[in-house]
Amino acid sequence: MNPDREEKILRAVGLCRKAGKLLIGTDTVCAALAGRQKPFAVLTAADNSEKTDKKLRDKCGFYGVERTTLPVSGERLAHAVGKSAHCAAVAVTDANLYGLVRSTLTEPDEIV
């Protein structure tokens, strides 16, 4: 993947955090999925373990929440959201901000 594109994705995720519309960490995300106000989407790191990936995939599927694997490592994702350790997942709680993140995931000529 293009490094500039990765940076755009991470900046968009960081903006969600600054706006207070981002849940950080697998346990927090899973709790939110089971809660009353579900996030609009869950974003996962590309290097998650198979167990973590399955847990998030199953929870998102059960609760009907979109899940997207970002083309970045958990360390880079953690850095983008202001954490020092590996971050396996984040959840966006605002539809407009998720639209911004989603727009960074595809190249303009890929949008149909």
Describe this structure in words.
The protein has 112 residues and is α+β, with helices and mostly antiparallel strands. The chain has one domain: 60s Ribosomal Protein L30, Chain: A, CATH 3.30.1330.30. The chain has 5 helices and 4 strands, in the order αβαβαβαβα. Strands 1-4-2-3 form a 4-stranded mixed β-sheet, sandwiched between helices. Helix 1 runs antiparallel to helix 5 and helix 2 packs parallel to helix 3. It is globular. The mean pLDDT is 91.
Q: How widely separated are the two ends?
A: 20 Å
CATH topology: 60s Ribosomal Protein L30, Chain: A
Following the backbone from N to C, one meets helices and strands in this order, namely HEHEHEHEH
Q: Rg from C-alpha positions?
A: 13 Å
Total of DSSP H or I helical runs spanning 4+ residues: 5
CATH superfamily: Ribosomal protein L30/S12
Unreliable stretches covering 5 or more consecutive residues: none
Question: What's the structural blueprint in terms of helices and strands?
Answer:
Blueprint: H1 3-18, E1 22-24, H2 26-34, E2 41-44, H3 50-63, E3 66-69, H4 74-80, E4 89-92, H5 95-105
Parallel strand pairs: 2-3
Antiparallel strand pairs: 1-4, 2-4
Helix pairs in contact: 1-5, 2-3
